[in-house]
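User: Hi! I'm working on a homework problem where we have to compare a predicted structure to a textbook description. Could you give me the structure for the chain below?
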Amino acid sequence: MMRISLLTLSLLLLSSNLQARWGLPSFKERRKLHPLQLRPYQVKRYADHGKVDVISAQGKRARGLYITPFWLKRVGVEQTIRLLRRAHLDAVVLDIKDDYGHVLWRSKTALSAKVQWPIISDPKRMLRRFHEAGIYVIARLVAFKDSKLPFARPDLSMRLTYKPQRLFWAKEGWLDHYSPEVRDYLIDLALEWQAFGADEIQLDYIRFPKGRTGKYGLWLHQKNDKRTRAKLIADFLDRLDRALKLPLSVDVFGLTTLVDGDPRGLGQTLEQMAKHVEAISPMMYANGMTGYFKGNRLTENIYAILQCGLWRARQKTPQIVLRPYLQSYPDNVPFFGPKFIIKQVEAVERGGSDGFLFWNSSMKNRVLVQGLQTMGKKRLTAFGSDPKQHRRQRPPKWCKAPGTGNVFDPVPKKKKKRRSVRQHDRTLP
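Assistant: Happy to help. Predicted structure tokens:
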């Protein structure tokens, strides 16, 4: 008889509890077979409000912090405002559809009925209180990554190429990017928060899954759609932008700032996306850049990489608002502390950033507050006020200008020229 250790049993129970708490699919649910038939759907028609949405001066130079749904539910709006004031921040990023696919209020959108987790009981009242405190509110909407809706509506999910009756699952689920019903679903959710009074809609996971998606991913709604992934994403942003009257922003991988085009096939190309949004937030997390360092160990050269990325993004998108996400958690940063917070802010300002946002899903913000308090309110309020700073403080020479190649591509080795041997130099037999 096989024995199960107490630790193993505890982990299994913990995993089951977490799945039950967050409503995540079980192993049996993930392996369940689903039919391949698609439901008929009539694409919605939205009013066209044009592509130009004016972002306020505060929104353009917003200094903000991402707040998790768990924190918001536990401590409420007032304590969130106090945290922002202590850190001299004037913006907050709130989930409205989270990383798991939960819709976090009682939405009237029919497709959300089975995936709601209404921890935000009164969105209008919450937004009104933030605005009274002078806080700019960014509503974060996780787009195509979704571990809930695929199990309520399997016909809207990505599938596995080699087993198309199985849903795509790579630690999380994904919706079908080509489905018009999925795209209308995201637009409807955004329109509700426009009506509530949000200052801006921010799309995250506005991309295809990373990795070998061409080999393992199947999109039942793709049919004869031959658009590139970048064009598909750009077309969706165009439609959403026209349907909204308020500013639209997107989160993108920090890698997009250090490469040309879309070499990983994620559908994220800064130049194309910038035509349809008012702001872009490259996720410039040091934690994800260890591969650029010897032995995967970060050094303080990370600040030059942050400056390089923003400097390149500024040249790619000269008219767009750049507000990078920065790291306020210690993962993979041996010198993590208040100084790390300060130097990140200074680096992206040198690169041409208009504002900045900080991310720490653990909500342990003591180090962040210490760093920003050291900088002081006057210094932070002046952030982004010099639009020409990035021209005076160019990053190191290894930081290639956009269009001249990816920053960390290996340098091709020069072939040594063989010295021609003259006839009289040869050894005679």
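For your comparison, note the following. The CA atoms of residues 16 and 26 lie 8 Å apart. The chain has one domain: 57-420. Good luck with the assignment!
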